[in-house]
Amino acid sequence: MSGIRLAARAAIAFAAGIGMLAWATGAGAETRKPEPIKIGISITDSTFLPIYLAQKRGYFKDEGLDATFTTFHGGSDLMRAVVSDSVNVGLSSPAAVISAIKAQQDVKIFFGGFNQAPFSLCAIPSIKTLADAKGKRFGITRVGSSTDELTRYMLAAHHIDPKKDVRIVQGGGSSARLAAMEAGQLDVALFAMPFDFIAAEKGYNVIERQTDVMPDFPIQSFFARQSYIESHRDTLKALLRAFIRGVRLAKSDKALAVQTLIDTVHIKKEFAEKAYASSIDGWREDGRLASEPGMKAFFEMAIASGHLKAPWPKDKYWDNTFVATIDQWKPH
């Protein structure tokens, strides 16, 4: 074989090798197909701000994900979608996860990071205290949701039997329940920020705040079926990297964060600013759940509502894979 032919073949092989190397090291990443993932959010709520910011800035796409988001009418509805594989990952209160595990579903929480206590019980003007609310209609999102359990916990703390002394009504998301109050269909409802601010502006009374009964709370968490967690670890690391970037952005750019709440939750600037100020310390990029007193209150709440008889060991509802290895995969 002539030297010219050998040189030509060597050049072709070298070019092919460079192409393969570029693909493997990310230089040709734009040709890769993004990994699809379906994410469910329990409700539209200001506590999800890091997710909204990550969507707005394209962080999920940056991490190689084709992320589809669906908003539900509470944690119970979202859980049904997760266990039926209509949604891969859910974002909701651990209360929904506990209920699903009790029903023999293979779901677990794999990351926290939303540790606020943002709820308040708001009542029509004639009701000044919880004692005045006996016999009244209390609005929650869905039975078994965090709003359900917290409402029952607050009532029990004031020696009001939620099964006998009041009527618990499923009313959907915050906007729907506030509209139901205005229509005279509900007397009291549990609202997260900023809807408690909105209710107060409309003349409703804040008769109890979540912070009156607990220091913080695992208000939202990432969860999925155990089989999905085990088979999609890299996908979930990419998802959590985008979330962490969203947390960092929320804490570093107040103006953008407030505007995103205005655009997404559809609230006034003054309410968005209050919600931001009240929530910022609870967004945690390390994936922790609430403090020890907060988790104690969480389980006391579940016990008071009748959903549990005793606190659960953490490994019954928690997959520690990602928190245990966070220094290996988190964005730097």
Describe the structure.
- The chain has 332 residues and is α/β, with parallel strands linked by helices.
- The chain has two domains: 35-116 and 220-329, Periplasmic binding protein-like II (D-Maltodextrin-Binding Protein, domain 2, 3-Layer(aba) Sandwich), CATH 3.40.190.10; 119-212, Periplasmic binding protein-like II (D-Maltodextrin-Binding Protein, domain 2, 3-Layer(aba) Sandwich), CATH 3.40.190.
- Helices cover 46% and strands 17% of the residues.
- The chain has helices at residues 3-25, 49-57, 59-62, 75-83, 94-102, 146-157, 174-182, 195-201, 226-231, 233-252, 254-265, 269-279, 292-304, 321-324, 326-329; strands spanning 35-41, 65-71, 89-92, 107-114, 119-123, 137-140, 167-170, 188-192, 205-209, 220-225.
- Strand 6, helix 6 and strand 7 (167-170) form a beta-alpha-beta unit.
- Helix 2 crosses helix 10.
- The model is unreliable at 1-30 (pLDDT under 50).
CATH C-level label of the largest domain: Alpha Beta
Strand content: 15-25%
Written as H for each helix and E for each strand, in order along the chain, the element string is HEHHEHEHEEEHEHEHEEHHHHHHH
Distance between the termini: 53 Å
Could you give me the name of the CATH homologous superfamily of the largest domain?
Periplasmic binding protein-like II
Q: What is the alpha-carbon Rg in Å?
A: 23 Å
Total E-strand runs: 10
Shape: globular
Strand adjacency order, main sheet: 2-1-3-10-4
Set down the secondary structure blueprint:
Layout: H1 3-25, E1 35-41, H2 49-57, H3 59-62, E2 65-71, H4 75-83, E3 89-92, H5 94-102, E4 107-114, E5 119-123, E6 137-140, H6 146-157, E7 167-170, H7 174-182, E8 188-192, H8 195-201, E9 205-209, E10 220-225, H9 226-231, H10 233-252, H11 254-265, H12 269-279, H13 292-304, H14 321-324, H15 326-329
